[in-house]
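Chapter review: from sequence to fold.
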Amino acid sequence: MIEQLKADLSKAKNYEDLMGKDGAIKKLIAKSLEQMLESELTEHLGYERYSPNGKNSGNNRNGKSHKTLRNDNGEIEISVPRDRNGQFDPVIVKKYEKTIGPIEDKIISMYAKGMTTRDIQSHITDLYGLDISPTLVSNITERIVDLAKQWQNRPLEKIYPIIFLDAIHYKVRNDSNKVTSKAAYTCLAIDMEGKKDLLGLWVSETEGANFWLNVLTELKNRGTEDIFIACIDGLTGFPDAINTVFPKTEIQLCVIHQIRNTLKYVASKDQKQFMAELKEVYKAPTEEAALINLDRLEENWGKKYTLAIRSWRNNWNNLATFFKYPEEIRTAIYTTNAVEAVHRQFRKVTKNRALFPNDDALKKMLFLAYRDLSKKWTMPIKNWAVILSNFSIYFQDRFDDFI
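The C-alpha cell string follows.
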C-alpha cells in the first residue's frame, strides 16, 4: 500500500491528483485512519488479529462498514472495523462522526512540542473528557511515520547553493535492548530562492565520515547534481566524503567550531589575550592579511600553544574559503549556526525524553519538530539577492546550467 501511495505521489501533476476523489493525499489519510481504527479495535478486544487469545473470548472482529468523512480537503471514504457484540466505540472516528481532524491533530501537535504520551493522555482527558490510553496516543502519532518516510524520499532540487551538515546525539535503545548514543544527521540547505529546506534526517550509531558519504550519495540519488558550498564541522575525513560525491563543491569549515577546539589547548588565564589576537586572523579583510596575522599569532604563542596554532595551519585551506567572497556571503557560510539553530529547536522539544525506545521514535519526534520549525522558513535569508548575484558570477558555468 505504501509503495502504491509513493507511486501516486510521484505521478501527481496537479491539485486533483493530490486532493481529488482518488488523490494520493486522500488515500494516505484514509489508510492512516483505517490503521488507527484497527489499532483501537485490537485494544478494545484485547488481542491481535488472528491471535489464539481471541478464541472463546466472547467477542471478535465482524467485518467492516464503509463511511464517508469530511475534512478541509473534501470527502474521504474509509472502512471501519466492527466487533461481533457491537460494543466497539472508536475515539478517532466516533460512530456518528462525519468530520475528522481536531482531536488527532491536537494529539500530534502536542507530541510535536515534546509532550509525552502520558502527558497527552491526561491533557486530552482534561480537555475533552475522553478516556484514551498512552498506547492509543502512540498509535495516533504513528501515522506520522509514513509521512516522514515519504518526505525523506522526496525528489530534491538539482542545485543547492549552500548546505550545512551537522549531527546531534541522543540516547536510543537498540535491538538488543541496550542503551546507545546515536547520531541524528541533519542536512540543511539554502535553495535557489534563498529559503531554508531540511533535506533529510538520518540516524546512525556514531557520527563519522563514512556515514556522511552515504548521506551525500542519497542526496545525489534523489536528484541533487551540484552544491556550491558545504559548511561543516572539523570531523576527520568529512571534506573528502563531500568531494567524493560532489567533486566541485567548496568546503567551508565552521570557524566557531575551530575556535572552540582551539581554546581546549589554551590555558584559561591566556584565553582573553589569545582570542583578541586570533580574532585578527578570522576577521581579516583578505586571506593574505589573515595569514600575516596568523604568523604574528604563532610568533607570540606558538611555542606555548603549539597544538592550537597547528590546527589552524592544518585546516587552513578549508577554513579560509570564505575570504574569497564578499561580506554578505562570508556571513552566511563561515559558521554552521543555521543548522545549529535547528538542533536547538530539536533539543527544546526532546528535553523531556532522556531515552528513545527505538530509531523510529527519534525520527518521528525530529520530523515533527522540523515541520513546526519549517513554518517559519517562508522568506529568503538576509541579503539573498546580493548573494545570488555573486554566485552567478563566481559559479557562472555551473549556475547557467540550472537557470
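Two observations follow directly from the output. The longest strand covers residues 159-173. The radius of gyration is 26 Å.
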